[in-house]
Amino acid sequence: MRHSLSDKASPWTPALLIILTVASIILSTSMGIRQSLGLFLDPMARGAGISVATFGLALAVQNLAWGIGQPAMGALADKYGGRLVVAVAAACFAAGLVMMSWGNTLGLFLGGGLLVGLAVAGTSHGVLVGILSRIAAPSVRAVAISILAAAGSIGTFILAPATQQMLNWIDWETTLWVLALLAAAMAFLAFAFRRNSDKASAPGAERPNAVAAIRQALRHPGYVAMTLAFFACGFQLIFIATHLPKYLSICGLAPTVSANALALIGVFNAVGTLVVGRLGERFGNKLILALIYVFRTVSIVVFVSLPVSVESALIFGASMGFLWLSVIPPVSGLLNAMFGPTNFGALFGVMFLSHQVGAFLGAYLGGLSYQVSGSYLTAWISLIVVGVLAALVQLSMDDRPRTPAAVSG
Q1: Total tally of structural domains belonging to the chain
Q2: Is 5 part of a structural domain of the chain?
Q3: Residue 245: pLDDT band by 50, 70, 90 thresholds?
Q4: What is the mean pLDDT of the chain?
């Protein structure tokens, strides 16, 4: 009887539960702060004379730095574990927000752009999902990743309205300092990650080799297709995160509506991520990922076509939230199935670079189109076109596993 019970030991080990909890708190904090930065556009424009185009360009730089830094952060976490990577990134996050509070272009671009971008690379999915993938048993890996991605959205639900309330009560500079202290707290949580929590040092385990893994992946047509489609994800989402508050303001809605819409993105993202994770297991990650791009694009078309109101803004936030980070479970599932978890951070990082090139263009061109034409119409049309192309590319991808030859150490 004892032997039977040991054979049925739960794969949800205490170590897995601790790492899942800590990673969820870190991801939630990182994403919540980053996705609340769009709320500072109007206060910084009024208080520091920052133009819409300048603010959009700074957040575009942030997203590009996030993308460029992600492969390196992922590879370092693959090799050494997450403790050092997350701790250093948290310190950079805090420093970047403090520099942003200076209210000049140097602080905005160097702090809010470069430093925050690199910091998010070390405190977001590319590092945290990789850590979780390597410690979780295959039988619960997809569920654990779905829980992490869902929990990561709670920060947006809490921090977006909380940030707006602080902006109503205190000045925007002090609000950034409060967020900086919150970011610094992530460094202490990072000590829950062991140096080799990824089990890379176990006898017979495949050793991380980022360069060889990336070379192999770039020869896989499915990986290339998924990487190209990921461009649209960044292009659509970061435009919305950056410019939706301004767009709703132009349409005559109060700032609290923008904050509530961002909060709904967080709430519905938690639900959508869990639902999509289960659907991917049942119907296949490739199909579900393509449908996410389809439904995002349909939501944008409907929102732009109808008169903007409080109700339509909140419904749009809810619908986009359901599809926001729900790409993480199917993308992670496809990567793990095609290449295994050993070099997940590096491979996800290269994909995410494509995502962040799209994010750079979404944030910058959105601001530029408004600056030139006084309207966001061109930007919305671009989001629709790119979303349709991404769905077609994703649906046609080859998701067969890599060749049996292992990546050598």
Answers
A1: 1
A2: no
A3: confident
A4: 85
pTM listed for this prediction: 0.77
Residue 165 lies in a domain: yes
Mean pLDDT, residues 71-81 taken together: 85
CATH of the domain at 273: 1.20.1250.20
Q: Are the beta carbons of 107 and 61 closer than 8 angstroms?
A: no
pLDDT on residue 361 = 86
Domain hosting residue 312, numbered range: 14-196+207-395
Q: Does residue 8 lie in a domain region?
A: no
Which of the four pLDDT bands, split at 50, 70 and 90, describes residue 289? very high
At 9, the pLDDT band (50, 70, 90 cuts) reads low
What are the backbone angles phi and psi of residue 351, rounded to the nearest 5°? -60, -40
Closest-CA residue to 161 (of 301, 255, 252)? 255
Inside any domain, residue 212? yes
